[in-house]
Design a protein that fits this description.
The chain is mainly beta. It is built from no helices and 11 strands. A hairpin with a 6-residue loop joins strand 5 and strand 6.
Length: 113
């Protein structure tokens, strides 16, 4: 099983980023997936979850209305569209498969002016 995140970077407050998680080694369409993040000096935080079909999504309150989780089962990819970014969103973002459990290596997101 492999989960590989990409799309992180440095953006200014108010900006946007799109993260991707490319998966392999399991039946992707059956797998619920999640995005976690770890802010500097903090523990892991569940940011968003998505069911296997993509119809069911959940978000932590702090990102509701700003982040959108989605997936493309034909490409074995999951996404996190992030808008209205602020400094509190600075973190390493991880793709997670609960039924593994399996983690990606993470992608760094830095919000700074």
């Amino acid at each position: 099983v492999q989960l590989v995140e990409s799309g992180g970077g440095l953006v200014q407050p108010g900006g946007s980023l799109n993260l991707s998680c490319s998966a392999s080694g399991f039946v992707f369409r059956n797998a619920a997936l999640q995005w976690y993040r770890q802010r500097p000096g903090k523990g892991l935080e569940l940011v968003a979850s998505i069911g296997g079909t993509g119809e069911i999504t959940q978000y932590v309150d702090s990102v509701k209305g700003r982040f959108t989780i989605s997936r493309d089962n034909s490409k074995n990819e999951m996404y996190l569209q992030m808008t209205g970014l602020n400094v509190d969103d600075t973190a390493v973002y991880y793709c997670f498969r609960p039924t593994g459990p399996n983690w990606g290596q993470g992608t760094q997101v830095i919000i700074a002016s």
